Amino acid sequence: MKKKYFFSAFAAVLLFAGAAFTSCDDDDDNPAPGTRPTIKFENVIPTKNYVQSGSFAAVAPGATTSFTFHAAKGQRLMLAAMYSYSNDLFFAPENPGIELFNDSGVPNTGIIADAVKLWDNGTRVNEQPGPGVNHPGVAQAGVVTEVKGTDAAGHTYLAASSLFQVSLTFDAAQSLFTCTISNISNGTANETPFSGGVFVVSNLLDGKLVMDKPFFSVDQKSGTELTKLAEDGNVEPLKSLVADQTGIVTTLHGAIVVVYTGNTNPIYQLGQKDAQLGLAALAQRGDPAQLKASLEKVPQVRKIYTLTDTAQPGESMECTYEAAANEKVAFATMFGYSNDWFFANGPELNALTKGEVTSKTVLLDDGTAVSQYPGAGNAQFIFGGTVMPEDKAISAVGDTYPVPAVDGIVKITIY
After folding, report:
1. With 70 as the cut, is the pLDDT of residue 105 above it?
2. pLDDT tens-digit profile of 286-299?
3. Helix H or strand E segment including 227
4. How far is the C-alpha of 384 from the C-alpha of 72, rounded, in Å?
5. What is the residue-averaged pLDDT of the chain?
6. Burial 144-180 (b: 16+ CB within 10 A, else e)
7. Any signal peptide, and if so, which residues (predicted)?
8. pLDDT value for 368
9. Rounded Cα–Cα distance for residues 50 and 9 (Å)
10. Residue 199: band (very low, low, confident or very high) from pLDDT cuts 50, 70, 90
11. Count of H-run helices and E-run strands, the chain
12. How confident is the model at residue 24 (pLDDT cuts 50, 70, 90)?
């Protein structure tokens, strides 16, 4: 079912998929003739399939292992581990993975019923499961199929949920899940160790999972990396594959462009708390309207322009403004997959500056909402979350999370 996130309300104004060139709202309906530069905000962040990925340890019968990951409403957890006393069977959820939240954004916790299924990788002829299985066994050119009680050779198996148990706990402040895998096969007819495994949490863009079939497709041939896991319990090829496809993504959501005089940036002051003029609404929700209304009362502010659109990866938005040689320009746009982060110019910019100004752009934390993992925080507006307030000074975003460098996310040009 398609989720309704904040950017869906703006989809109708995107002119085409590659670039969302948009006009900006001007505070002056009849501007006098003058110099009219255009500022362009380009979202250049690469699209990645997964926001987080990793591995977990092997699990003997009767034992458990755990790992943690961040996630938010709409995202799914996919994992896979080998049924070790087999030729090429593995445990994994059905695509697209384990649902982590219900439609109201409440996390699914406790033992997750029927979290995984048992799958046949289709690359080895199945022998009677047990410690005496010959590895690697006889090759075959099959496809991935679910084992429903018996395999193709007639060997019997208990339901996967009677062997492989998944339970979840959730830390709301960090939007952090702890997943515990319990091997409950001990004493059953299908007692088996589990190999180490791999997990991913898919990114979301425009309310859709970027990757809805992370590891395999039913009735299709398995990839080399999953085959290594299913046949040998070798985690590394699949772990490496998904690591290359893992990274933070974001939209740019809303923007404000302010032409002013004097020596004080009217949008923000680094090291000071948010002045409560409306920057928080832009940094938290991509809404520049309140900030515009406040700045219209500031004498040094000459003109204000706003954008209320969303630039997804590969898209852009731009605004033409009027300025004179003795004036300066300041700008801000929301890091859309955050709780309260925004891009803005660090040093002062002459309003008639020409060329790329990305090197003069910084990523800032407004200090008005508790930060969570970008693109995986259930309190973030993109996921329909509720702000967890904080009261800190505006600061540069640090290295708590693996956020790309500014020039790996945005390109800002004045021409």
Report:
1. yes
2. 999 999 999 999 99
3. helix 224-232
4. 10
5. 93
6. beebeeebeeebebeebbebbbbbbebeeebbbbebe
7. 1-22
8. 98
9. 24
10. very high
11. 4, 24
12. confident
* Long-range contact set of residues 14-19: C-beta below 8 Å, sequence gap at least 24: 14/309, 14/310, 14/315, 17/314, 17/315, 18/314, 18/315, 19/314, 19/315, 19/316
Mean predicted confidence (pLDDT) in 341-358? 98
Residue by residue, DSSP assigns 293-305 as HHHTT-TTEEEEE
Exposed, middle or buried: residue 403 (CB in 10 Å: 0-12, 13-18, 19+)? buried
Q: Which domains does the chain have, with CATH numbers?
A: 6-45+249-414 (2.60.40), 50-244 (no CATH)
Q: 159 is written with which tokens?
A: 């339901």
pLDDT at residue 41 is higher than 60: yes
Kindly tell me the sign of the dihedral angle through the C-alpha atoms of 186, 192, 195, 197: negative
The structure's pTM equals: 0.91
**307 to 16, 208, 321, 331, 399: CA distances (angstroms):** 17, 24, 12, 11, 29
